[in-house]
Amino acid sequence: MIRQLKTYDFSLLFAPIALAAFGTIMIYSASMVFGPMVWGLESDHFLIKQIQWLAVGLIMMFVFSAIPYRFWQRLTKSIVIFMLLSLGFLFVFGTNVNNAVSWYNLGFMNFQPAEFVKVGLIIYLSSVYAKKQKYISDFGKAVIPPLVLTILILGLIIMQPDIGSAAVIGLIASLIIMSSGIKWKHILLLVAATLIVIVLGASQMATDERLNRFSGAYQPFESPDDDGYHLIQSYVAIGTGGIVGEGLGQGVQKLGYLPHPHTDFIMAVIAEELGFIGVGITIGLLALIVLRGFYISSKCRDAFGSLMAIGISSMIGIQAFINLGAMSGILPITGVTLPFVSYGGSSLVILMIAVGILNNIARHVKQKEQEKDEEEVHVVNEDKEATTNRGVRSWQN
Q1: Cα–Cα distance between 272 and 249 in angstroms, integer?
Q2: Rounded to whole angstroms, what are the CA distances from 361 to 56, 59, 300, 302, 312?
Q3: Which range, 80-84, 202-206, 234-238, has the best average confidence (pLDDT)?
Q4: Is 158 within a domain?
Q5: Is residue 389 included in any domain, yes or no?
Q6: Does 86 have pLDDT greater than 60?
Q7: DSSP-derived pairing of the beta strands 100-105 and 95-97
Q8: Which residue in 141, 343, 358, 390 is a FRET match for 322, CA 20 to 30 A apart?
Q9: Whole-angstrom Cα distance, residue 210 to residue 267?
Q10: Residue 386's pLDDT is what?
């Protein structure tokens, strides 16, 4: 039992749990006035919901960290079928939330299939490209087929429309493909094709609302009461917080000024109440998970495990970057939440599952390293014993 516990990567246990616990506290701080004021809910409504999902997420994290990660490779076909069905049935049974049909209302919770698709596509692409390693340089045979399914999935998500999730999933897929061992000329070809598709797609999907998001992000003070309002309120929260912040629970921007303070803009609440120190700790813990994941990928000698570690780490890093970019005006607002910290049951549980899988890969790497060390010690001991025996025989002679 003790030996099994030693195989866990404790940084991948501590950082997600610390972020989720901290996020739960900040969700309460951000929503205790906003919830009753805007939706007429109890002040602790979002706190109780998030605690419930955190409990489920913790259980799932430990369960998935105990399941050998190669098990998921055997379920690739089932995962693909579930991804397609869950996205397709949205247009029949889905619930419209904020002008997007992205959710199923299951009664006890709202389920967002795009959150599952992030992990499902990581498993699929990692499995496919791991199996194609012998002919990975064959662009037509190895690279193109998985792209067809990826494009289909992205198309279903864009049709909802959920541009934020599509952007995250597209970037995750790109990083897995680029890390799979394909040739650089094929990478450049894919990048060029992607840019062309983005330009053509943007021209077709450009609406006044989406264009206004860009003007609101890059010229917020030209329309301070309209498109730039959200970002300006975020700036006020960040500027007010300074180094140490106004104090936990003492923020003002969450009192009806800052939109979605417990989801999209929770980092602005952290900045106002806990200052640069709170923001730095949050980003540091997120960076620890991402960098640790990339390190595990570099140490894993199994292509499937290595690509999955890259995919999971990328998912967390990309979501964090897009959320922080929107809060600070680097990127347009897309509705992407901050991993582990923002309110959301589907997101939190899926992230905990993903980190559980990542920890299992880390456990596999540790076990292999321990076996290698034990083997080296055994070889050294055998060499010493052989040397000693030769010395004894020489002395006897």
Answers
A1: 10
A2: 21, 18, 8, 10, 11
A3: 80-84
A4: yes
A5: no
A6: yes
A7: antiparallel
A8: 358
A9: 23
A10: 59
At a CB cut-off of 8 Å and minimum separation 6, what does 230 contact? 216, 258, 259, 265, 333
Please, are residues 105 and 89 in contact by the beta-carbon 8 Å criterion? Answer: no
Q: Model confidence over 95-135: pLDDT tens digits?
A: 887 777 888 887 777 888 999 999 999 999 999 999 988 88
Quick one: which H or E segment has residue 201? helix 184-205
Cis before 161 (ω within 30)? yes
Contacts of 243 (CB under 8 A, 6+ apart): 275, 276, 277
Q: Residue 48 contacts by C-beta under 8 Å, 6 or more apart in sequence? A: none
pLDDT tens digits for range 291-349: 999 999 999 999 999 999 999 999 999 999 999 998 888 888 878 899 999 998 889 99
Q: What are phi and psi of 327, to 5 degrees?
A: -65, -30
Tally the domains of the chain.
1
Lowest mean pLDDT, pick from 150-154, 177-181, 360-364, 374-378: 374-378
Which stretch of DSSP H or E encloses residue 96?
A: strand 95-97
- Could you tell me the two tokens for 81? 């079928």
Tell me which DSSP letter residue 72 carries: G
Place of tokens 């064959």: 138
Q: What per-residue string of b and e applies to 193-216 under the rule 16 or more CB within 10 Å gives b?
A: eeeeeeeeeeeeeeeeeeeebeeb
**Residue 67, domain member (yes or no):** yes
Strand order in the sheet with 110-111: 95-97, 100-105, 110-111
Determine the 3-state secondary structure of 25 from DSSP.
helix
CB atoms near residue 171 (< 10 Å): 17
With CA atoms as reference, report the closest residue to 188 among 150, 116, 139, 233: 139
Number of residues that make up the chain: 397
Q: What angle do CA 135, 183, 136 make, to 5 degrees?
A: 15
Residue 386 counted as domain residue? no
